[in-house]
Design goal:
The protein is built from one helix and 16 strands. The protein has 207 residues and is mainly beta. Keywords: Signal.
Amino acid sequence: MAQLPWIQGFLFIILQLTAVTAERTSVIKRAGDEVMMSCSKLTDGQRKCSRTTWIFTGSGRSTVELVLLGQIKSFKPNRLNLTSKCSLVIKKVREEDAGSYDCQQWKPENTETPFHQSDIIDLSVVNLTEQKENHSVTLSCSVVTSDPCRYKVQWFDQDVNIKESPSESGCSATVTSSSGFKFPQCKVTQTGTNEEFTFSLQPSGEK
């Protein structure tokens, strides 16, 4: 029985949609650290990541082609690298690196439609600072993300939540003490999953 043209077209659209799937994960790193983001599934038969493209979307929603079919195209190639498994490595992470990274796997026969796999990694960057003035010490911890804040930021000292002069707003927390801190830690909790990340400062006097 012959299929109507509109049915054939509808089935074609369904096939096109199901040919592309996306997995989304979140990564949080401290400024200055190195991060490696991976593709969960690679197209078979690649040589030097020749079917892998990495796209970056920042806070302004503008997109930048970091890697095109295995070739690094970014204006900052000294901080970027591709592993043998096509994972994207960024050295000395900065605030400007916060955003979404899309690893696309392309079909061997064309370069118009991504293959069945597209991995999106959301990278957030943590900044920690310590400021000394007179006899007081101020600690600041902030999370830079391209999306609305989805983290709770708190300061702890020796595993005790610091309550002295706290200032917590969105993706940042600042505390000040006249007696200093012994073992300060910034704890970042992802809302929804309650996953915790801990970032430490060296004790006062040891820097």
